[in-house]
Structures are given as C-alpha cells and as structure tokens.
Amino acid sequence: MKPTGWGLVAIACLAIGVAGWVASRPAAVKVVALTESPLAQSLVFSGRVAALLRVELGATVTGRIAEVLVREGDRVQAGQLLARLDSDELSAQSDQAQASLQLARARVDGQHELALPTSQATLAQASANLAAARQEAQRTRDLFARGFIAQARVDETERAVQVAQAQVDAARAGAKVNQGGGNEALQARLRVREAQAGAALAQARLQQTRIVAPTPGRIVLRSVDPGQIVQPGKTLFQFAADGSTQLLAQADEKFLGLLARGQTAQVVVDAYPAQPFEASVASIAPGIDAQRGTVEVKFAVPSPPAFLREDMTLSLQVQVGRKERALTLPAGAVLGAGGDGRVRAIADGRIVEQPVRIGLRTLERVEVLSGLARDALVLAEPLAAEPGTRARPAGGR
Questions:
Q1: What is the pTM of this model?
Q2: What is the pLDDT of residue 47?
C-alpha cells in the first residue's frame, strides 16, 4: 500500500529529526592524559674518531732511502727508527770532523806539555845568562878603574849584557805567549772550539738521515719505499701520537642550549654496531660554522676500545636531560616546537586549545611543565577536531 501524502510528510519530518540529532551529538575523539614516568632526552649526532695529535714526518736532507722499518698501522715508541737514508758520505764527513777535533785538542795538549815548559826553561836560562853578563861587566869595570885592562874589554862586556837582556826579553815574550792568557794559547783554544762546532754539525747532519718517531703513537700512512730519492718537505709518514682519544661531531646550532660539558653519550661505531661504548662531552666550540649552521662538539673517551681507528665514522647519542618523575604526553598530542607548545583538550564538552610549557622531549614523549591540569583530557590527534567543536571521549584514555 503506498503511503499517503500525510505519510510522506511524517517520514520526512522523522528523517530531519534524526539528522538533527546526529548533527547535535558530540563527536567522539580519542583522548590521552598526563602520565608520570621517568624521562630522558637525548640528541643523536654523526661523528668521527680524531687523534689528539697528527704529525707529518719527513726528511730534512736530500738523500736516497736505504730502508723502511715500519708499515701502516704499526705502533711505535718514542725514538724508534722508522726509515734511514743512505749515510756513507755524511758518515765520512763526520769521521773527518772528529779527526780534526782530535788534532786541535792534541795541539792544545802539546802546548801545555811541551811548549810552555820549554819556553819557561828558555826564560830561566836567559835570565841566568843576563845575571852572569852583568857580573862580568861589573868586574871588568873595576879592573879598568885600577888600570889592569883596556877600555875595549869594558865595551865588550857591556855589549854582552845588552845581548843577554835581549835574550831575556825574547824568552819572557815566548813564555807569555804559551801561557793560558797568551795569544798562541788563545788561538789553540779557538781552533778546538771551531773543530767542536764542525764535528757537532757533521754529527747533526748524520742524525738527519734517521727518521724516528717523536713520541709513542701509530703509523697512519706510509708513502715511501727503499730506493726513493727524497727531499726536505716531502711527507714520508703520517703519524698519530698517543693521547686521549677524541671524537668529533657537528651538532645543529639549535641544540646549543641543551649541550654542556660532562654530559654522557653512548657511541656506536658503524663498523662495530654490536659493541657500543661510553664517551662524555669534553668541549663545545665557541663559534658556529656559518656555512652549515653547526657547532663542533668534542667528546672524551675514558676507556677507548681496541678497535678504534682514526677517522672511523660513528653515531653518538648524548643524554642532555633526565627526570625520574616527569608529567608527559605522547609527542603527537603536542603542537609546536621549543619550550612553548599547544594542546587541544575537552572542557565542558567542547574542544579548547590550551598553551603549555614544554620541558624534556623525546621522539615518543613530551614533558609538560605547566599550563595543563593533571586530569585534563587531551586529544591524541589534535588536528582531528577544531576548537569550539562539541566532543566527547571515544573511550580509553
């Protein structure tokens, strides 16, 4: 039986009423509440292993490499011979300089042992001859006064005194020359010093044929083989000195306020992912890399594992904050970044947007410091409903 006109009107009114009831019914939304739990915030960076000191070692003289005694990766001690240049010519020069030094010293010794005593004996003999000549001259003058001898004899003895005096003066000058303050002794000592300098120079040049490790460390790179001709300035070895192992990372400048010295980090080396180890923030660069917008962070490793090598790539997870009792929400329930955020909650049956103050953040949870009641019902998906919309919890918190 077909409905009459009044029946159609009733059905239409019923439909309109049902639609109005549905439209006026609060929307069901999924809500969450604040949860108290421990919360640790971490930052993750990529980095690399850096040696505390890296040195390029090379020769300071031109020569042919006679032998190379180390390989890449070898650990060496301070003073250990790494490579040696051919040294035959420089060895001969060193031997010659040593011989010249010995000769100069022998001359000084000879002067002290022979020349000085001889000159002193000559002076003594000349002095004795002068005294005898003076006595003879006095005696002849007495005899001449008494008329026993002629004037010629007196003149002869006077000349003998003059000759003896000249011999004394010459002997005294010779003795002075051979004494410690004399010119001859000074020249001898200067010749010794000159020979010493020459011997030291020759020995230094000979030592330059030996390339040694400056401190304990590791050979990172070897770029020389026996037979090569090398010149000053050419790098033969790259050497990493032992010291505190450091890790370098470039952190986004927006994290600068979260980083501080002494913070701990978990480190995972790409080549050994199953063997993590600990490090700590040692220093934070005072400047910012303007090109990349990053800041360099250095990490100290108190107990570096044996597998670490220079320039290895790694990941660092730095714990920048931790609270044992933090009020948190799921990260997806909070809008905004930094310390200021917003949440959408149900209040008196409608959606309201509420500003909140944010503390620690992780990928999963966000700490709410203030701005939200402990029992507030917060939308798990804040963009699912606009402020002012009537809403009710869909069940579960």
A1: 0.46
A2: 92
